Amino acid sequence: MNWKENKRRSRNFGRTEVIDNTLNPDFVRKFILDYFFEERENLRFDLYDVDSKSPNLSKHDFLGQVFCTLGEIVGSQGSRLEKPIVGIPGKKCGTIILTAEELNCCRDAVLMQFCANKLDKKDFFGKSDPFLVFYRSNEDGSFTICHKTEVVKNTLNPVWQAFKISVRALCNGDYDRTIKVEVYDWDRDGSHDFIGEFTTSYRELSRGQSQFNVYEVVNPKKKGKKKKYSNSGTVTLLSFLVETEVSFLDYIKGGTQINFTVAIDFTASNGNPAQPTSLHYMNPYQLNAYGMALKAVGEIVQDYDSDKMFPALGFGAKLPPDGRISHEFALNGNPQNPYCDGIEGVMEAYYRSLKSVQLYGPTNFAPVINHVARYASSVKDGSQYFVLLIVTDGVISDMAQTKESIVNASKLPMSIIIVGVGPAEFDAMVELDGDDVRVSSRGKYAERDIVQFVPFRDYIDRSGNHVLSMARLAKDVLAEIPEQFLSYMRARGIKPSPAPPPYTPPTHVLQTQI
């Protein structure tokens, strides 16, 4: 049998080995792919019965094919996906079992602590204010800064706080690569005085506290000028502890589910849905901005949700029959069960709502954020994480309440994505994003940055290629989710659940005709 996998416009990625005379092959050859949570990575597997040594696939019998995404495989329980093989009408072609595992290279981090002794005195009125700067060496012999310690004031014998750094950042995973450490005396005006330097390597540091890890700090200029110069002090490694960093995929493999909720802005500022100028206009030939944003983000997140049932909410509309204003209504009309079947179900419920509700106002975010927060607050054990997508056209009306809701939600297993559609100014959304200044409410700051905002207009492709532009949108809004997810798990000390045991094919398999 032969196998090939194609990515994006059917690029031939590779082939397995051929296994002779079996209907239940267990292929050995592995394929290494780059994985990105925020990208939809489409895969196709074609199966062939090999009849000769010809490399030309048309010379062999086609047995069927399987389509999936890389996200589907890693998002399945134990990163093991079983799918029926299709492609030959009217014929059962068997099943394929796909497994994925994350490569462990460079997932280690190191916790190190240093002290120094008898450093040179650099300050006229006091002692020195020393700090260390660490550099990793590059292939071309240059150095890249990778860590700075804090400054310890007014001492020639400082003890710096322990710090954690990834092995990748420290030496790019090369244990023998040179690590250069420079020692400086801090000055308020930024013109820090150079005390001296030394070099080491990960392998040397990994010996831990010993006579091998006491380093002479040398100032080359002083050494060149003074014959009696020996050093400018010493730096000693006090401790060295290796920790293996857990990754986003460790949690997914252990069964953590990503729950996706959608909230759509039904305020009157969107314009009458019957008019082509409306942001909610239902063009029979093309998705509107709301539909595109929903589909772009939803199609990626759905791979990590096993039941594919998504709550879909609306806000800012008058509801039938009595015209009451709601900022948290179910798009499917069922407040007890707002779940829709897959992204297609969300789209259908959205279109149905447009025909039944009256667009009104104001633009309040807090109710839908609190809605998801209620669910998130009930499962804080790491088994579930919640992502809320808000698609809105406008200027927010309940800023103070929304900030309060975000500050409270930052303690919970949830993230918020806001996509702004239309021509409005989105200054308030940028403030909620919290990249520059963490969101605060009544003197309390958000525990984590959990909001990502993008304006939809930045992703409109002038050439009309909506597939590419929506892939870019999804990439930008979802790129921060794995780190936000990990920041919650780390802060709560939640470890990934053990993954189920790897699949081993049964020894006695009933032969089935393919």
From TrEMBL:
GO cellular component: plasma membrane
SUPFAM superfamilies: C2 domain (Calcium/lipid-binding domain, CaLB) (SSF49562), vWA-like (SSF53300)
GO MF assignments: calcium-dependent phospholipid binding; metal ion binding
GO BP field: cellular response to calcium ion
InterPro entries reported for this sequence: C2_dom, C2_domain_sf, C2B_Copine, Copine, Copine_C, VWF_A, vWFA_dom_sf
Domain of life assignment: Eukaryota
Key words, A-Z: Calcium, Metal-binding, Repeat
C2 domain segment(s): 1-83, 92-215
UniProt-listed Gene3D superfamilies: C2 domain
Keyword Ligase found: no
Protein name, as recorded: Copine 8
Domain VWFA: 259-460
A Pfam family this chain is assigned to: C2
